[in-house]
Recover the amino acids of this structure.
């Protein structure tokens, strides 16, 4: 493995090279830090670097590798962290001026777990204010670029996380997903993104948005990398993905809401990907499910009060420092009655049970990750109505998994900035990753679609 290949290698491949004595973690870390500083988009992707920590951790990983004492398959692999994971002694500001200068005194629980697994913390990546948008636009701090067009948003809220991997400035990134914030930027930058089940990974030391929906998840170049990251955060062996096949796998294509107002490129890219899975042996059924439609109808009253309650006191001390569309989205949560909010949760719990009963015979449910493509950042900045409509459309499909309490995985479909999402039952991540690995192998072998939209 040469320095030229390091920047595009998977985290798994880098870990294997370190274990085989073919790659020094210190050399790799120094090369990545230098690349970040030299890259024209580096300041738009990373909010701040943790040089000293990274080099100390890399030197420790080098020592373990030489002694044959590596802690995990990712020992010595550098990782970027979304700027809402607490890092001791390094500012964690969640993309907002309201938290400027906030320096925690200890790491988030998942960062602690990854550090124990031997990973190297490169630094913190830019994100949407308080993680409250799926577009990735942040005029307050920085808006990272989309891999296919630097003038377009990369998706959010884990915007810098996706860009760090897509531009070769980290082999693996850790983000968060409350309504699609891992899957949207992963899809728009042709990456794999895993939304974990709510409650599976600790949120201790993670700046909250909506705690009943907030989840931690990796963005990576492969399903295997996501599996390794999840295992490291849980301090356990990774799931075995070898020999994964689509033969006999039953998929349900979710019709109805996911295809309303879908743009032509995502629709065509998704259809081609599903056809490839079917040709590889998967059984495809199609249906519209009433619990999905009903759950989406509860989104506003379920999400917005929780988000506003979380931050209203701080926001109202200095609202003018916030980007107006994000501020307005927060404030929309103050109009709902507590009785209506609690009643909506009761309804949602019933829809969750109904959905699981109706999909019990399927291995996963398929849908387009996003019904649109990355919009132009400048237009989103000046046209607040456009920001609102595009943001709601962007998050509609991904929000389904959050509302229904599911785990979900997005894969590159073969069409630029178009993701294929697989949803599975709560806590079924290992099974979902194995199915995802089989689907990934099929989609990777597809010839380029030639469909473009950016």
């Amino acid at each position: 493995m040469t320095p030229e290949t390091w920047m595009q290698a998977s985290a798994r491949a880098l870990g294997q090279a370190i274990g085989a004595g073919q790659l020094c973690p210190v050399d790799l870390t120094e090369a990545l830090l230098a690349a970040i500083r030299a890259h024209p988009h580096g300041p738009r992707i990373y909010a701040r670097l943790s040089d000293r920590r990274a080099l100390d951790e890399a030197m420790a990983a080098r020592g373990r590798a030489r002694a044959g004492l590596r802690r995990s398959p990712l020992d010595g692999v550098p990782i970027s962290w979304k700027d809402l994971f607490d890092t001791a002694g390094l500012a964690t500001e969640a993309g907002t001026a309201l938290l400027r200068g906030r320096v925690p005194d200890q790491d988030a629980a998942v960062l602690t777990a990854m550090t124990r697994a031997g990973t190297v913390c490169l630094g913190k990546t830019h994100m949407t204010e308080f993680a409250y948008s799926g577009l990735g636009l942040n005029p307050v701090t920085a808006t990272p670029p989309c891999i296919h067009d630097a003038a377009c948003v990369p998706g959010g809220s884990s915007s810098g996380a996706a860009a760090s991997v897509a531009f070769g400035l980290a082999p693996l990134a850790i983000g968060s997903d409350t309504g699609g914030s891992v899957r949207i930027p992963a899809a728009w930058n042709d990456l794999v993104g895993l939304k974990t089940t709510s409650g599976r990974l600790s949120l201790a030391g993670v700046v909250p948005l909506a705690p009943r929906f907030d989840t931690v998840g990796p963005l990576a170049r492969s399903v295997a990398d996501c599996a390794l990251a999840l295992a490291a955060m849980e301090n356990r062996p990774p799931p075995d993905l070898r020999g994964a096949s689509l033969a006999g796998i039953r998929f349900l294509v979710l019709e109805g809401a996911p295809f309303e107002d879908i743009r032509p490129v995502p629709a065509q890219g998704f259809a081609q990907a599903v056809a490839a899975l079917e040709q590889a042996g998967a059984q495809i059924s199609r249906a519209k499910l009433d619990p999905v439609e009903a759950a989406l109808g509860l989104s506003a009253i379920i999400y917005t009060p929780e988000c506003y309650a979380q931050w209203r006191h701080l926001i109202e001390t200095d609202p003018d420092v916030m980007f107006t569309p994000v501020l307005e989205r927060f404030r929309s949560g103050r109009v709902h009655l507590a009785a209506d909010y609690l009643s909506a949760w009761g309804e949602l719990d019933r829809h969750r049970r109904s959905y699981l009963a109706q999909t019990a015979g399927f291995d996963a449910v398929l849908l387009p990750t996003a019904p649109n493509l990355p919009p132009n950042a400048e237009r989103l900045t000046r046209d607040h109505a456009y920001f609102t409509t595009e943001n709601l459309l962007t998050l509609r499909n991904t929000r389904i998994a959050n509302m229904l309490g599911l785990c979900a995985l997005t894969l590159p479909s073969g069409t630029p900035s178009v993701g294929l999402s697989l949803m599975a039952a709560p806590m079924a991540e290992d099974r979902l990753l194995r199915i995802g690995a089989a689907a990934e192998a099929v989609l990777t072998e597809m010839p380029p679609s030639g469909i473009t939209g950016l």
In short: The chain has two domains: 3-233, 250-445. The chain has a mean pLDDT of 97. Residues 118 and 201 are 18 Å apart (CA to CA).
